[in-house]
C-alpha cells in the first residue's frame, strides 16, 4: 500500500466519499431549516404550557414573599388541587401529660 503524502490523512477515495456525504447532509439541512436546531419547533400548546408554568411560579413566589413579610407563620409552596399557591405549616404539638 502506498503511503499518503504528508498532510493528507485519508486516501482520496475515502476523502471524496466523506465530502459527498457532508454535501448531501448540507443539502438536506438547507431544505428543512427548522430542523437545524433540536427543539426549535415548539408547538403552540407547549409554548402556552411553559408560559403558564412560569406565570404560576412567579405568582407563587410573590404570594410566599408577601406571607412571610406580613405574618409570623411559616408557609411553603406546594401544588394544590384547590388552587392554593402557598400552604401554611402548622407545628404538631404533643399533648401535655396530665
From TrEMBL:
InterPro entries attached to this UniProt entry: SOSSC
GO biological process, one term: response to ionizing radiation
One GO location term (cellular component): nucleoplasm
Keywords tagged on the record: DNA damage, DNA repair, Nucleus
Highest taxon above the source species: Eukaryota
Protein's cellular compartments: Nucleus
One Pfam family of this chain: SOSSC
Family: Belongs to the SOSS-C family.
Subunit note: Component of the SOSS complex.
Task performed by this protein: Component of the SOSS complex, a multiprotein complex that functions downstream of the MRN complex to promote DNA repair and G2/M checkpoint. The SOSS complex associates with single-stranded DNA at DNA lesions and influences diverse endpoints in the cellular DNA damage response including cell-cycle checkpoint activation, recombinational repair and maintenance of genomic stability. Required for efficient homologous recombination-dependent repair of double-strand breaks (DSBs).
PANTHER family, A to Z: SOSS COMPLEX SUBUNIT C
Protein's UniProt name: SOSS complex subunit C
Organism from which the protein derives: Scophthalmus maximus (Turbot)
